[in-house]
Design goal:
alpha/beta, Rossmann fold, 9-stranded mixed beta sheet, 9 strands, 23% helix, P-loop_NTPase, SOS cell division inhibitor SulA, UCP037290, ImuA_translesion
């Protein structure tokens, strides 16, 4: 076996498009750092992949799952353009996002109900060329929808993160990276890498995160009474 590996070594050095199944591909396009060194070490390219979908599968809310994305999103919000969220499950807590470093005036929320509308909004955002980051929430999606999103993502230099229910773990997906999130011990977030370019991941990661309280869903926002006067808070753009 050692002799066989020695014979293959010169070939593998000349062909950057071939990688051994036990290795991460060295030729992976550089990714965008996630802000979590332990996670970046396990991702081909050293961060969120660009030009393809990343799926985040989770049924938990309020366990720090948004903290997984905040370091990257905070950096993206400081560049010229829009940080787009399509149909998040609840209204973002803007003061908490601002405290985490996200420049909220660049945050654009698109509220769409049906899966086809959400996919359409995601594709339009990708094709606009005006985004610095993009995340969407899809509770239902078929393979054709995901393939359309994957094709649209290939033409952009951005990470495209898609939140989907945990039970979709068994469904096939064209996404190049699939993560499953679940609550971990001692305020940690458990991250299982279900799919990535290269060898499969064998052990979960436990990331220290901060939990964010979420106000009521977008469908029933809590509004102040006129007597309460104006509430000062960071700006946000919402499209319904």
């Amino acid at each position: 076996m050692k002799h066989r590996n020695a014979a293959l070594a010169p070939v593998l050095q000349q062909r950057s498009d071939i990688w051994a199944a036990n290795d991460l591909p060295d030729s992976a396009q550089p990714g965008i750092p996630s802000g979590h060194p332990a996670l970046d070490a396990e991702l081909p390219g050293g961060g969120w992949p660009v030009g393809e979908l990343t799926e985040v599968l989770s049924d938990c809310q309020g366990h720090g799952e948004m903290s997984l994305l905040l370091p990257w999103m905070a950096a993206a919000s400081r560049r010229e353009g829009w940080l787009v969220w399509v149909s998040p499950p609840a209204r973002p807590h803007l003061p908490a996002l601002a405290a985490a470093g996200l420049y909220t005036p660049r945050l654009l929320l698109i509220d769409a109900e049906r899966p086809a509308e959400r996919v359409w909004a995601l594709r339009q955002a990708l094709e606009s060329g005006a985004c610095t980051g993009l995340a969407g929430w899809l509770d239902k999606a078929d393979t054709a929808m995901l393939r359309r999103l994957q094709l649209a993502a290939r033409a952009t230099p951005l990470p495209v993160l898609l939140f989907r229910p945990a039970h979709d773990r068994q469904r096939p997906s064209p996404a190049g990276l699939r993560l499953q999130l679940s609550p971990g011990p001692a305020h940690a977030l458990r991250v299982d890498i279900l799919k990535r370019r290269g060898r499969p991941a064998s052990t979960p990661l436990y990331l220290r995160t901060r939990a964010f309280s979420m106000p009521p869903p977008l469908s029933s926002p809590s509004l102040p009474s006129p007597a309460a006067g104006p509430i000062r808070r960071p700006a946000l753009t919402l499209i319904a």
